[in-house]
Structure formats: C-alpha cells, structure tokens
Amino acid sequence: MSDIGHFERGMIIGVCCARAGLSETVALRGFSLTTASSIMKYSEQRIPTLNEYCVVCDEQHVFQNGSMLKPAVCTRELCVFSFYTLGVMSGAAEEVATGAEVVDLLVAMCRAALESPRKSIIFEPYPSVVDPNDPKTLAFNPKKKNYERLQKALDSVMSIREMTQGSYLEIKKQMDKLDPLAHPLLQWIISSNRSHIVKLPLSRQLKFMHTSHQFLLLSSPPAKEARFRTAKKLYGSTFAFHGSHIENWHSILRNGLVNASYTKLQLHGAAYGKGIYLSPISSISFGYSGRNQPLSYRLWTSSRPVQSRFLQSRNLNCIALCEVITSKDLQKHGNIWVCPVSDHVCTRFFFVYEDGQVGDANINTQEPKVQKEIMRVIDTLTG
After folding, report:
1. Where does the pLDDT of residue 11 fall: very low under 50, low under 70, confident under 90, or very high at 90 and above?
2. Residue 370 and residue 383: Cα distance in Å, rounded?
3. Which of 91-95, 247-251, 256-260, 273-277 has the weakest average pLDDT?
4. Over the Cα atoms of the chain, what is R_g?
5. What is the pLDDT of residue 356?
6. Is the pLDDT of residue 4 over 80?
C-alpha cells in the first residue's frame, strides 16, 4: 500500500461505507491491478474493524467506553466536509421510509438532551453540520457551541408522522423554508447514531413490558460481542434492567453505556461503588428512568387501547433490558446490581413509555417464565 497515501486509504474506506463496490473505488482513482490487489488485502483486514476508525481519515477513534457498532466520521473539520461531500449523510429519506419510529425516537432523545439543564455535560457529541449555503464552513461546530441556534433548528424539524404522509422532497422543502439547518440537523441525528435500533413488530415484542414502543438495541461492536460470548461461556449470563433518563440516551447511543460513577455524567448516587447499575426488578430501574418525577404504573387489560405508532408525548420514560455476565465481578446488593466491567454488559432491548406512565412494577427477570419469554423473542430474532 506504499503507493496509496494515508488520506486516500481513508477515502477508500469512506467510499466503501457509502456502498460503492471495490471496482467502482478502483475506477474512481484509476489504480493499477497491482494496487487494486493491495486495496483488496487492505479491505479484508480493515472491514471487520471499520467501526474503530474514522471512515475518512482512517485515524482510530477515542471513545470513553471503547468502539461502537456502526462506522462514523471523526470531528476533524476536513473529515466532516469530506463526509458531507461523499453523501454518506444523505440517507434521511430512506431512514424515514424504512425506520420512521426509530427516527422519531432519535429526535425525541436529541430534544430531551438539548432541553436539559445538564445539556453542557450530556449533549455529547455536539453536532458537526456543514452549512448548506456555504459548504466550506460548519453551521454547527463542536468548537463553537450555540445551543440556542441548535434549538431553533430542532424546533423546525418536521414531525416524523408528517414526513410519512407525503413526498419526502416536499417535506424537505417545507423544512428548508422554516429553517435551512433543520434538514441537515435531522441528517446528523440519524447518521451520528452508532447503535443498531430496530422497532420490534407486535409478534416479537415482550408482552410483559406492556408498551408498543419496543426496540431491539445493539450497540456493541463485533470485538466486544466476541469478548462477551467468551465470558458467557466461562461464567454464564442473565438479564437485568438499566434505567436512565431519556436525556442521557442521546449520548449513550453514540458513546456507549458507560460507567458514569464518580464522573460529571453521574446523575444519581453511587452508594454501592463504581460500575454500571442494573436491577432484575423493573420498578427499581423505572425509578432511575425519570428525573425526580412521580411514575404511574399501569394496570393492563387485554382490551387496552392500541397505542399510536409514533411518540405523542414529550414526557417519556425508557429502560433497557441488558444481558450481563454472571461472574464474580458482578456485585449484587439485594436487587441492585453493580457491574464494574463494561465489557460484561450488552444492551438487548429498549422500551419507551409516555406521559410518566410505565409498565408492570413487579417484573423479575430471574423468574423462569420471564426468562423463557425473553429467550423466545431472542430466538425469533436470531432464528
């Protein structure tokens, strides 16, 4: 690869991420067959670890909790401009068409973080968005944060339910009229998500969670999942809930589920030491999902009204169902568990509730019937 510069290698990876084939990439650069062969070897080595490097400059990311699942661009301005030029961030229309409920959730999380009094701490990463009227400058720049301008653009993002009711190009035109930065911000919200989130159909939902807003949530890259599986063979695993206020999930989906104990990110106390806090009991994690807000537990019947496809409220509570390694590192203090090893916790499912209401307070993931239902859903997703 001596005849290919460092930045060019990054461009190759970037083009590949933009779904261009190897032959197209070679044609773009006019490479020789020898160089093409080198590119192939390089690609074979790098594709399994794409998530660990910037898709443009090929420099390794530095994340607080290790690498994430999806590839991403770093915050260097040259890389942001190149990323924008390659068109990798132009997939908003496709995302709204195929995963509108997920986009709806991502926007809600972004809004919650931006409106939080802790936004200077938790609204991370801050957007890197190219100015559509001046492609050589950043309209939103992490080095020059402007939360008021960001809030104005977010307020102009059309509701996702409106986007699904007509031509996306027409909706984009409407957004551009309201605020020229609204659509670029929506593109950033979608493309910066580094976790794999899919809305679960009713037939594959966990019935005992009593919400129609259920998602598959995977954020661990292949290397972490491999380490998790190795540890699982040695020590076994179980399932537990992790509750966190919705304002924190904007960062969690992009930076990972981190050990926030004794850091500026910590919102609740760390009475049982440093680590990721979990619980097998739903009510305990539901308690962490709100910020000192009273929760209303629902009594569900089979005749309950069908919930809307999209989120109707700004008052949202959410918890994740995680798989955790049951090694001696897992500290159990009654129904409050603390895992100091981040590699030993992987998110699997995500549940959202509206208007301060949450599901059954008495769910215990250690009950055989609950474990059986969890495994049933996992089998339908992997089978």
Report:
1. very low
2. 20
3. 91-95
4. 22
5. 73
6. no
The answer to whether 25 touches 17, Cβ cutoff 8 Å, is no
Quickly count: other Cβ atoms within 10 Å of residue 29's Cβ: 15
Q: Is the pLDDT of residue 313 over 60?
A: yes
CB proximity list for 381: less than 8 A, separation 6 or greater: 204, 216
pLDDT at 229 over 80: yes
Closest CA to 71 of 85, 55, 86: 55
pLDDT at 173: 86
Q: What is the pLDDT of residue 193?
A: 85
Euclidean distance between CA atoms 161 and 115, whole angstroms: 22
**Rounded Cα–Cα distance for residues 174 and 164 (Å):** 14
CB atoms within 10 A of CB 27: 12
Residue 93: is its pLDDT beyond 60? no
296-297 and 357-358 beta bridge pairing? parallel
The residue written with tokens 């919705």 in the block is 246
Q: Is the pTM of this model over 0.85?
A: no
Q: In this structure, what DSSP letter does residue 313 have?
A: -
Beta strand ranges found along 114-200 (DSSP E): 129-131, 134-140, 196-199
Strand partners, 197: 217
Positive or negative CA dihedral for 347, 349, 355, 361?
negative
* Alpha-carbon distance values, 46 to 2, 24, 34, 39, 114 (Å): 16, 18, 18, 10, 35
Q: Are 259 and 251 in contact (CB under 8 A)?
A: no
Q: How many CB atoms lie within 10 A of CB 378?
A: 17
Q: Are 128 and 188 in contact (CB under 8 A)?
A: yes
User: What angle is formed at CA 249 by the lines to CA 299 and CA 178, rounded to 5 degrees?
Assistant: 100
